[in-house]
Amino acid sequence: MLKNLDARPRLLISIVVSGLVYTLLPEYLNLPTRIIIGWNSGATCFLALAWSMMLGATPQKMQRSAQRQNEGRLAILTLVVVAACISLLAIGFMLKNTKRLPETLLVLHVMLAGATVVCSWLLIHTMFALQYAHDYYRSDRHSASETQDEGLDFPQETQPDYWDFLYFSFVIGMTCQVSDVQVTSRSMRQLSLVHGVLTFFFNTVILALSINIVAGLI
User: Strand, helix or coil at 4?
Assistant: First the structure.
């Protein structure tokens, strides 16, 4: 059942989980902390649902999914990326006065900040992997002729699966450059450019937060 969930239901379920966790948290927690815990819950839920779907997806299933979801994918990608960036801002507010906290609470805040960075980073590059896969297999490229340019050329692989797109996306996420996969269309180059630029600034913010976290422990 989980493997058949499309993007919108996955996002809706994750938003509901995030909202429920935020609502159920005790009121003595400050607002940034509650927001971050709610965000982490929703992001973890989305990642679990997405990776569960990816695990059993064949290229044929991926093509059918791309045909069903030909609208709104970029809007969902944009929404999630913006939310992930906001979550990093919330970390900054949460860590603002950590030096005044008792040691136990300080460690918990640092662990929560670290978990948020990991969740946001994984979520952004997973979302881009889903977008690359959707653009590759979407109907207007595969229905007209077999000679249509899918946008990405995977070495020795004519029917890439989600793991191939995860590889491509996470290499950009780690290095801000493409891997051995060739980008062969303008639309994919545009998406890869946006991904690379976003990755550069996102990783810069993560580095700044990491320095802030270490400073909070000193």
Answer: helix
Q: pLDDT grade, residue 24 (50/70/90)?
A: very high
Residues 6+ apart with CB under 8 A from 177: 171, 196
CA dihedral 175, 180, 186, 188 (to 10 degrees): -60
Q: Which of 112, 54, 42 is nearest to 79 (CA)?
A: 42
Cα–Cα distance for residue pair 94/116, rounded to 1 Å: 12
User: Which tokens sit at 169?
Assistant: 């996306």
Residue 1 has pLDDT above 50, yes or no: no
pLDDT higher for 7 or 188? 188
pTM: 0.85
Q: 73-94 and 31-55 helices cross at what angle (nearest 10)? A: 140
Q: Where are the domains of the chain?
A: 2-217
- How far is residue 128 from each of residues 40, 124, 172, 178, measured CA to CA in Å? 19, 6, 10, 13
CA 11 to chain centre: 12
* SS3 per residue for 151-217: CEEECCECCCCHHHHHHHHHHHHHHCCCCCCEECCHHHHHHHHHHHHHHHHHHHHHHHHHHHHHHHH
Nearest to 127, CA basis, from 21, 36, 11, 209? 11
Q: Which residue has the higher pLDDT, 4 or 80?
A: 80
